What we know:
- The complex is a heterodimer.
- Chain A has helices at residues 8-41, 44-75, 79-107, 109-113, 119-145, 148-178, 183-215.
- By secondary structure, chain A is an all-alpha fold.
- In chain A, α1 (8-41) packs parallel to α3 (79-107), α2 (44-75) packs antiparallel against α3 (79-107) and α3 runs antiparallel to α7.
- The longest helix of chain A has 34 residues, at 8-41.
- Chain B has helices at 2-18, 62-68, 99-105, 120-130, 137-150, 154-157, 170-183, 200-213, 226-232, 250-255, 260-266; strands at residues 22-33, 36-47, 51-55, 79-87, 90-91, 106-109, 188-192, 218-222, 235-240, 243-249.
- In chain B, β9 (235-240) and β10 (243-249) form a beta hairpin.
- In chain B, α4 (120-130) packs across α5 and α4 packs parallel to α7 (170-183).
- Chain A binds chain B through residues 3-7, 10, 75-83, 215-217, and chain B through 226-227, 230, 254-257, 263-264, 266-271.
- Chain B: This is Phosphate transport system ATP-binding protein.
- Chain B: Residues 24-266 form the ABC transporter domain.
Amino acid sequence: MATSHIVSAFDEELKFLTRRISEMGGLAEQMAGDSVRALISADTALAQKVISDDVILDAAEREIGEKAIVTIAKRQPMASDLREIMGAIRIAGDLERVGDLGKNTAKRVVAVRDTGVPRSLARGLEHLCELAMNQLTDVLDVYATRSVEKANAIRERDDEIDSVYTSLFRELLTYMMEDPRTITTCTHLLFCAKNIERIGDHATNIAETIFYIATGAQPEGERPKEDLSTSVGATGK
Amino acid sequence: MNMLSETAVEKVLERKMTNAALKMSGKDVCVFYGEKQALYNVNLDIRENTVTALIGPSGCGKSTFLRTLNRMNDTIDNCRVTGRISLDQDDIYDPSIDVVELRARVGMVFQKPNPFPKSIYENVAYGPRIHGLARNKAEFDEIVESSLQRAGLWNEVKDRLNEPGTGLSGGQQQRLCIARAVAVSPEVILMDEPCSALDPIATARVEELIHELRANFTIVIVTHSMQQAARVSQRTAMFHMGLLVEENDTDKMFTNPDDQRTQDYIMGRFG
């Protein structure tokens, strides 16, 4: 975005989208972090706040979508302007999903409140959450700076989250096998872990969208995959 | 699976297009109006059965280049063209070339519809008559009908072929001019902002027509509307200050152009 548009209102419309994406990002990040904190500390009030904040995030996504459509209709954008607007729509969709995943975790707080989260599992969840939050924070920074190299770095780092998730999956299985009374709690925690892992995936999606906005090309190669949880428990494993 | 095969088909079509035979070619084309140079060493190939759009800000040389393709610049006194422009490999500026015959092979449609002050029928029959393309009334009738059909105008005018062409609406007049250009069976049709004086509906009709004409003709169109260039062309050439700055597949040009000047121009930014 080196130069300005001749029609300055177009610049304002693009700035509006960028600003709203950043705001959505901030809220989604906070919701996701709060949901895990509420889970571990059994804080139902905080969980309730996450659940009610989701409405704000949903409205923001709709607003971005509508503004983007109007901008396309009015300005008929070309080249990087077009990619910028399409990118905003896609990123808003990813952030809205991040909020949904946070909300889903928050809803499970009540179910696991009575039994509590075993210490070692809490540490694992916190670590997973920290990794996912770092990815989300970094990708939002990259959105502001449009650094292609950093977008690629985020994409490469997703495998770390996947491998922590896989080990957490194994740990939860072990708990359930050792003490069937923990099955209810552990199943909820399994979903929570999956939610967090998915947040990492959305951060990766956003990184790929930013790469496309900046270069006009799709990022090359498969993203690294370390999520082996799909084969945990399979014969021979 | 379905998506895959569709992409495969597109790829084949794309390859066919990029491999399309060269119809016209400009090599090192320079144009001077008196002392002033309007085009600098333009190298541009025009492929057969392809719509090539020429875009760029006013005064960039796109219309000048278009006019070199059928020597319309000859009509301007102090205009001088250097370099080589070929049609099927023949140098069109060679002294042995008959300019009248050249313009029958490379027809032109102008910005403002300019029908002759004659009947609709005569407007279309005029070219075939001077080029001796028909021997009798029946043959003329056939050329007039098929040309008007091709220009998508036949159904609107078939019952009033003897009325003056100037009595038609602007959009109909422009399609009449396209019928007139098509009537002499040209190989290339040059269009200089053919829709700039038309409303959106008439514009859509002409664009649809360009799309259909592409099967039989090679088309070069100058347009100020980027959206129009994106809609109707397969190749786009961007001119700026007398230079050809970028020539690319249209899809690439409007989503991810290579040249910064193209980028600034199509996105409406300060260059």
